[in-house]
Write a structure and sequence with these properties.
It is built from 17 helices and 35 strands. By secondary structure, it is α+β, with helices and mostly antiparallel strands. A hairpin with a 7-residue loop joins strand 26 and strand 27 (473-481).
């Protein structure tokens, strides 16, 4: 293995050519003998049967190669928005991304989301404009579109001739042409380049190259190259540029042992396999490592004032022993026995590992969110056999280790399981995995919208649990509604002689659990909670009493203050023939949406709007009929707002409602089980 390592993510909107480019890079580097095809199901990184059948990637795949003395680990990510969670987790393992954009279709909605997430994660990126051999290709139009979407400075490092024809010719800028173009691009972000540019001079080639590397690593400059992955045009230029100018794994190196688990898979022979990017240190077979949950990624807003709360009790890190370490050779695994900082490996023997967890430390933890599941589906055995429900629930929980956004929920005794989903294709994949891996057949209900709720007004939430003895716990909160998107913050610390700090830690832990189900059964968000009162008894208080009392206080508060239902929204952008713009606006109004003024371009019009998820689920179908398939629709998650449809949206509660005090106390103490 070479000393220099590049961990690259190939990212793009669906059908932009990610897997094809990955194949060509692997073929160029000699990692595979022939470049496979997505359409024929022979791509090295598409291993699932459904990927081969449908010709799309649904899981992150890793392959490794060596090119010009550099070890290149390539992570091919799915392009369909249903699998954006895979992309989100891959970002944590990357040194940089290669974002592919079609020269014909331009920047699509999911590509916009990817660029924003790369900004949030502070990850360098290069753009590869693909499909320049197709009619309608317009590389510079794509570059201008990118400039409008991002504050990044873009450096076009490719020259193209015969664009839009069958035989385009692509070359890299070199020599004086490179220095001149680099000086002009850098002038906006670098004083040295600006001075040279204003004096009609150019930086030296060596200095231009040095500044290009520095500004790319600092996430201020994005290089742009072009080609046709299908015909391997421009692929070698891209590979050369990446190893010469893009940052290596040293950019994110640490002195201590630290790694992120960016993928979990279950193998029939190896069992649970954790794909790990190691930032620092090294691990070998039989080593024991700590597995850490990424608490820093929590949606809970941390205390930022003097009214700090007692922290929740931290469980000691889980320590588990590694049984095998396998490295990637092409897209296949081979025994290596060791992985060192900067590299990627597949590790066996960590039963409690989950996607997104860390090993060693959290020193390079980053959070870039691409996914907000807003649909929920009920899952039952397809033959209605209730005896199969526990096995089905166990399978879905295991799949939740691989894709946490599935979030399978089930309590013993319930006749159905619920999961979150991002779309129909994800459900098809789950159905396929359940059949192939677990020999289970499931029925999925039509998706329902995931609403949220928030306290309707400011006020107290209180409960006392002093009977039947022995018990004694009193909890009093102040709830204060906050603006949309705020999340939840927790504050307040009582004197220890009034309520022991360990009990206040129990209150906070229990409060966090209460957020899962509010008055109407939805997740509770967008409010500030302050612990303003509480007490224990030195004789009668049992350590678990506050886990009984806190949910009662929480639900008493939600009941007395009222709960406002929040609905999820989508941001849509429609490009359609100008003559049907009025009909599209009418559809947006019917959906309860809010739109911006249309933008007319020649024979087309572009409309942007914010619409509720609940009323827009079949809008893509209606739009296709309305426009005879000529309209282009881009949509992405926008956020939540107060529900305006006037309907009562109730999510069935799991477990016993703490508002039913007597049953709740028995249930919390293990003396009652809900039917």
């Amino acid at each position: 293995m070479s000393d220099k390592i590049h961990n690259i993510g190939i990212l793009a909107h669906v059908d932009s050519g990610k897997t094809t480019l990955t194949e060509q890079l692997l073929y160029l580097t000699g990692a595979i003998r022939t470049a496979g095809s997505v359409d024929s199901g022979t791509a090295a990184t598409d291993s699932l049967s459904i990927e081969k059948q449908r010709g799309i990637s649904v899981r992150t795949a890793t392959a490794s190669a060596s090119y010009k003395g550099v070890t290149v680990n390539i992570i091919d990510t799915p392009g369909h928005v249903d699998f954006a969670g895979e992309v989100e987790r891959a970002l944590s393992a990357l040194d940089y991304a290669v974002v592919i954009v079609s020269a014909v279709e331009g920047v699509r909605a999911h590509t916009e989301n990817i660029l924003k997430s790369l900004d949030a994660a502070k990850l360098p990126r290069a753009v590869f404009i693909n499909k320049i051999d197709r009619a309608g290709s317009d590389m510079m139009a794509v570059v201008n579109e990118l400039k409008q979407l991002s504050a990044q400075t873009y450096f076009v490092a490719s020259e193209v001739k015969n664009e839009g024809e069958d035989n385009p010719c692509v070359s890299r800028l070199t020599g004086e042409n490179f220095a001149l173009a680099a000086t002009e691009a850098l002038a906006d972000i670098c004083n040295e380049a600006a001075e040279a540019f204003l004096c009609d001079e150019a930086l030296t080639q060596e200095r231009a190259a040095e500044l290009i590397r520095s500004e790319i690593s600092a996430c201020r400059l994005t290089p742009v190259l072009c080609g046709s992955a299908k015909y391997s045009i421009g692929v070698e230029n891209l590979a050369d540029f990446l190893v010469e100018y893009m940052p290596s794994s040293e950019r994110r190196a640490t002195d201590e042992l630290c790694g992120v688990i960016f993928k979990i898979e279950h193998d029939k022979t190896l069992g649970k396999v954790s794909h790990i990017r190691l930032f620092g240190g090294e691990i070998a077979n039989r080593d024991e490592v700590e597995i850490l949950s990424p608490d820093s990624f929590s949606d809970m807003i941390q205390d930022t004032d003097d009214n700090a709360a007692v922290e929740t009790e931290k469980k000691p890190p889980v320590r588990e022993k590694i049984s095998q370490i396998k490295s990637f050779s092409g897209a296949k695994l081979s025994d290596s026995g060791i992985v060192r900082g900067g590299d990627i490996a597949a590790v066996c023997g960590l039963p409690s590992a989950k996607t997104g967890h860390f090993i060693g430390s959290l020193s390079v933890s980053e959070n870039a969110r691409l996914v907000n599941p807003f649909l929920r589906v009920k899952v039952t055995p397809s033959d209605g056999d209730a005896l199969k429900i526990p096995d089905l629930a166990a399978a879905l929980v295991e799949l939740s280790d691989e894709e946490p956004y599935i979030d399978a929920k089930w309590e013993n005794g319930q006749k159905e399981i619920t999961i979150s989903t991002t779309g129909k294709i994800q459900l098809e994949v789950l159905d396929n995995l359940l059949k192939e891996r677990y020999n289970l057949s499931a029925a999925f209900s039509p998706p329902t919208v995931i609403y949220k709720e928030t306290p309707a007004s400011k006020g107290l939430a209180r409960a006392s649990y002093t009977m039947p003895k022995p018990c004694w716990a009193v909890v009093e909160f102040m709830f204060e509604p906050m603006p949309r998107g705020y999340g939840v913050s927790y504050h307040g610390r009582l004197p220890s002689n009034q309520c022991f700090y360990r009990y206040q830690s129990h209150i906070r832990t229990s409060f966090n659990s209460c957020l899962e189900q509010g008055l109407y059964g939805w997740e509770v968000t967008d409010f500030r909670c302050t612990l303003i009162g509480g007490e224990h008894h030195t004789i009668h208080t049992h350590p678990l009493d506050f886990f009984v009392c806190t949910p009662m206080a929480f639900m008493n508060g939600m009941s007395q203050l009222g709960s406002t239902i929040l609905e999820p929204l989508l941001k849509i952008r429609v490009t359609a023939p100008a003559e049907i713009s009025g009909k599209i606006l009418s559809e947006i109004v019917k959906m309860g949406g809010e739109y911006e003024n249309p933008v007319a371009r020649s024979q087309t019009v572009t409309l942007e709007a914010i619409v509720p998820v609940a009323t827009s689920m079949d809008f893509p179908t209606r739009l296709a009929v309305l426009s005879s398939g000529k309209a282009v629709l881009n949509q992405s998650f926008y956020g939540y707002r107060e529900c305006r449809d006037g309907l009562e949206h109730i999510n069935p509660r799991r477990g016993v409602n703490p508002l039913d005090r007597s049953k709740w106390i028995l249930y919390a103490r293990g003396a009652y089980q809900k039917d």
